[in-house]
Structure formats: structure tokens, C-alpha cells
Amino acid sequence: MKTAILADLLDFTGDPGLADRASPHVRWRPAHWLLIDDDGRIAAVQAEAPGDDWQKIDHSGRLLMPGFIDTHVHCPQVDVIASWGTELLDWLNTYTFPAEARHADPAVAQVAADLFTDALLAHGTTAAVVFPTVHVASVEALFTAASQRGMQMVAGKVLMDRHAPDNLRDDVAGAEVDCRALIARWHGRGRNRYAVTPRFAATSTPEQLAMAGRLLADHPGVYMQTHVAENRAEVAWIAELFPQARSYLDVYAHHGLLTERAVLAHGIWLDDTDRALLHDSGAQIAFCPSSNLFLGSGLFGWQQAVAAGVHVSMASDVGGGTSLSMLRTLLDGYKVQALAGNRLTAWALLHAATRGAAQALRLGGQIGTLDVGAMADLCLWDVAVGPVAQRRDALARELHERLFAWVTLGDERNLAETWVAGVRRYRRGADPRA
Ligand code: GUN
Ligand code: ZN
């Protein structure tokens, strides 16, 4: 039987901007029914209850939003989340590379991918742009886990042929063969999309970056993901490794990696020329505030990026980031921008993690929205959990105040259910395997 859910529906019909609390692009439909078709898409939204041929689920008083989109997160790094005391380059060598090396074992990779995708759903994230590891088995495991859960997944084999331990290095020819086979096998299969994934300019030779550019040229529609301009020592190292490049970002531009389906994490240490390049290419920056604060990397300039017309989405960057919760990520984003004197609305933050990310990923109308015809990737949230949040909620006078308090005080404990393509995949308190 087809399903209909009663709840308070929130999504966006356009970009609400950064500071407008009264934006007309906020679509608030309290006490509405969301109807889900047999194919897992949104069939209708209406105030009246549907007929007897619909299975009706009453979540009155709960907030129903599109599932969050995390545009940069590392599957194997659940094992190194909350690791103490280092900046980026030391953190990679001390914690991250040893953990990723374990994923050469397909059994380890599969357990990790299952845990990771279940955890995303339990945090309210239904779509993600993900780094597995350099190993083909880790890519297979991740796409397999995402397929089993029906999730929208963008991922690809990490490319690194230098400045990494022996057990994590590939080479240009072998990596090209692996990538071509993985693209043929996974790109466009169900909701999986392939991303050519050079880890960052330091760990790929110019020859490997050129190979990555060839893969993108040969496969329109394939994504690209990498890191850029995260940490000052990293930026200085890239300048040494690529003395001819005008900037760090220019290394990627030179190799044909800046496409409209490129997702570049961080982008803290960019200049106006870089931002113009991002704008012209249509590439997006994945803003990773919790990671940037935790690793002491720096403060991303969202205002400057938006002024230059650059797409900005939100990302947890676990394990540099300290939570898979997009609510926590949004709150850290708010605080980072507050330091620069910008007060982002809850609308700006929530839009960036839903419709904004979808648009930047060229998946507008498919995810991040409650439009009819979109995939029914949905989360049901309790706006206030615990006495402090409940007291604050009771005192809120209008919707923005209420939902800003939810973003600020909430986390995965506020999540009641997660639905993916019209199927309930997470329920608070339930055994995910049951
Ligand atoms: N730069 C290169 N690799 C990584 C990574 O795994 N995490 C982060 N935050 N930055 C990186
Ligand atoms: Zn990262």
C-alpha cells in the first residue's frame, strides 16, 4: 500500500539568502500530508487526509524535512574521529593513513561501509559525497552498502600515487584501469554516482592529476571530489610541489578537474581569482566548519564565496570533523561565520544542507526538496528534546526563532525516523538490522 505521512513540512522553493529571516523561499506547511508513490517519489502534499487506499502514519507535531546532504565525508575515518592533538598533515600521517590502510581487507571495508551508511541515516543524512580509500574493495563496499539502503551516493576510488605510505599508494596506469572499471560498474547504477577522487594535490603526481582529467573528459556526468586550501602548511607545500601554478586551486584547473560536478572541500585559503575560477566552472565548495575548527585549519569566508557567485554546501568531513550530525555541522558553521560578523539565518544553513547542495550537485528536483516528483528521502524530527530545549521552544514567538533553536540545540537525538526513497530505514530506538 502507498504511504502518507502527517507532519509539519519544511523545505525551500529557492535560495533564501544569508540573512533574511522572512524569506519567501521558505515553504512551511504545518499539519500537511506527504504522499509517497510506489516508486519512492513524492506524489503529492495536501492538507486533507488521503483516502483509504493510503497507509496513513501520524507524526503530528514533528518536523518533516528532506534528508540532509553531506557533501564531504570519509567513510573509513569513523575509526579516527575525535583523535587528539594534531593539525592536518600530522593528523593524516599519525591517525588517518594507518586507519585507511586497514581497508585493503574487503571484510574490513564492508563492515565499515555498513556501519557508516547506517550511521549517516541515524544522523538524518540520506545523500552524501564520500571518500572511501585507495582500495577498490572499499569503493565496492560503499556502493554496495548505499545500494542496499537505496541512498544517493557519490563516491570513487581515492587516487594517491605519492607522499603516502606504501600500503596506500597506487600508480597512474593501475588506477586508471581501476577507475574505468568502477565507472562502468557503478556510475548511474541505481542512485550511485561515480566521483573521480584525487585526495589532494600533494598525494597525486602531475601525471595522475592529468589522468584524472582524462577520466572526467571521457565521462561527462561523472563527479570530481578533492580537498583544496585547507591548512596553511598544506598550501605552502602545494606551492613547493607545483611552482608553476598560480595557486593551489590553479593546479586542479590546469588538469581539467574543475567542472560543474566538482566538489572541493574547505577552500579556506583562496583569493578573488580562485573564487572567480570556481564561479566560472560551476564547481562548489564543501564548507566543513567542525573539521576546520577541530584541526585548527582556519575560518571559511562564506560571504566572499557567495559574493563571487560560488556554490557553498555543508559537510561534516568526519573524521576531521567531530560529528556526522548536519545539525551540529550547521551550528559550527553559524559560529564560524559569527566570528566574521555574519549572522546566518537557520534558513541559510538548512538550505545549504538540502536544496542548495542538491542544486550544486546538479540533482535539483531529485533530492533536498519536498517537490512532487522528488525522491522521498525524508527525516522526521522532534524540534525540542529535553527540558532546556523544550522550555526554549515554548517561548519561541515565530518560526525562525523556533527552528534556529532546533538547529542550535538539536542533534541526532532529535531524529525520530529517516526514510529513503519512500522506505523507512531508521527509527529511533529500533535495531537497524531488525
Ligand atoms: N586533505 C587530504 N586528505 C584529507 C583528509 O582525509 N581529511 C581532511 N580534512 N583533509 C585532507
Ligand atoms: Zn576531507
From TrEMBL:
<keyword id="KW-0378">Hydrolase</keyword>
<dbReference type="Pfam" id="PF01979">
    <property type="entry name" value="Amidohydro_1"/>
</dbReference>
<dbReference type="GO" id="GO:0008270">
    <property type="term" value="F:zinc ion binding"/>
</dbReference>
<dbReference type="InterPro" id="IPR014311">
    <property type="entry name" value="Guanine_deaminase"/>
</dbReference>
<keyword id="KW-0862">Zinc</keyword>
<dbReference type="GO" id="GO:0006147">
    <property type="term" value="P:guanine catabolic process"/>
</dbReference>
<dbReference type="InterPro" id="IPR006680">
    <property type="entry name" value="Amidohydro-rel"/>
</dbReference>
<dbReference type="InterPro" id="IPR011059">
    <property type="entry name" value="Metal-dep_hydrolase_composite"/>
</dbReference>
<keyword id="KW-0479">Metal-binding</keyword>
<dbReference type="InterPro" id="IPR051607">
    <property type="entry name" value="Metallo-dep_hydrolases"/>
</dbReference>
<comment type="pathway">
    <text>Purine metabolism; guanine degradation; xanthine from guanine: step 1/1.</text>
</comment>
<protein>
    <recommendedName>
        <fullName>Guanine deaminase</fullName>
        <ecNumber>3.5.4.3</ecNumber>
    </recommendedName>
</protein>
<feature type="domain" description="Amidohydrolase-related">
    <location>
        <begin position="64"/>
        <end position="423"/>
    </location>
</feature>
<comment type="similarity">
    <text>Belongs to the metallo-dependent hydrolases superfamily. ATZ/TRZ family.</text>
</comment>
<dbReference type="InterPro" id="IPR032466">
    <property type="entry name" value="Metal_Hydrolase"/>
</dbReference>
<dbReference type="GO" id="GO:0005829">
    <property type="term" value="C:cytosol"/>
</dbReference>
<dbReference type="GO" id="GO:0008892">
    <property type="term" value="F:guanine deaminase activity"/>
</dbReference>
<comment type="function">
    <text>Catalyzes the hydrolytic deamination of guanine, producing xanthine and ammonia.</text>
</comment>
